[in-house]
Design a protein that fits this description.
MetI-like fold
């Protein structure tokens, strides 16, 4: 097979892979981020402690994560057909890819959020902040570098999943490698496909690591943590002032809005 014959195949396969991985990543973030945060909030000692709910969600996530992706695709064929009308093609592949990635990303989010300093959560609570304020002002911003790294890991995993999806007619680079590289003995095309996947994964990993390091440095210099500690330090002094009890009681609630 000549390069002029390979080029259109590789271009279409690369676009199909990016399409599947892109949409699956978006769905995984939308579904996995709140799920991971909920696992932290409902855990023992969490802001919304609920042991039963936490164990139920945790078991569902564990079972979904432990299932091999190729088996998950087969198990979800009926569900996929009910949504997309077919079980082959890139649109159909997005369904199992997203469902497989949501619990994976949720566990990564849970790990990232647990790393946030508990003192910052207490600082917001002492200033009258509710659970939503804690999540929006502390948990997500302070864990953002780790969340970026988690997203990068998820994208890389989804690229591998998409290659497996290609074996059952989903298209993409995995499909090219199997149909042409393996079944038709086009070894050169197969290795070109492998090289493209390696380059794409390396670029994604580099961009993700660079963004995570940049956010980490920025957070250390001008993030919410220093302001929260400063506001918490001022709160006791204000509350102990004589003759100004009413304004002091209102000050902490107003101070929460300054943390951003």
């Amino acid at each position: 097979m000549t390069w002029s014959e390979m080029q259109p195949l590789l271009e279409q396969a690369s676009w199909d892979t990016l399409y599947m991985v892109g949409w699956s990543t978006v769905i995984a973030i939308v579904g996995g981020l709140p799920l991971g945060i909920l696992l932290v909030l409902t855990d023992k000692g969490g802001l919304l402690q609920n042991t039963v709910l936490n164990k139920v969600i945790g078991q569902i996530v564990n079972v979904a994560r432990s299932m091999p992706f190729i088996i998950l695709m087969v198990a979800l064929m009926g569900f996929t057909r009910s949504i997309t009308g077919t079980t082959i093609g890139r649109e159909a592949a997005i369904v199992p890819l997203a469902i497989g990635a949501i619990p994976f990303f949720a566990r990564l989010v849970e790990t990232a959020v647990r790393e946030v300093d508990g003192g910052l959560v207490e600082a917001v609570q002492s200033m009258g902040g509710n659970t939503w304020t804690v999540v929006r002002k502390v948990l997500v911003p302070e864990s953002l570098p780790s969340l970026i790294s988690s997203t990068t890991t998820t994208i890389v995993a989804l690229i591998g999943y998409s290659a497996m999806a290609g074996t059952v007619g989903a298209g993409g680079l995995g499909d090219i490698a199997i149909r042409y590289g393996y079944q038709r003995f086009e070894t050169e095309l197969m290795w070109i496909t492998v090289a493209i996947l390696a380059v794409v994964i390396s670029l994604i990993q580099f961009v993700g690591d660079y963004a995570a390091r940049g956010l980490h440095r920025r957070g250390g210099q001008s993030g919410a943590a220093p302001r929260l500690r400063l506001l918490k330090a001022r709160a006791p002094a204000n509350s102990g002032a004589t003759g100004t009890e009413s304004p002091a009681a209102e000050a902490p609630a107003a101070d929460v809005s300054k943390v951003a």
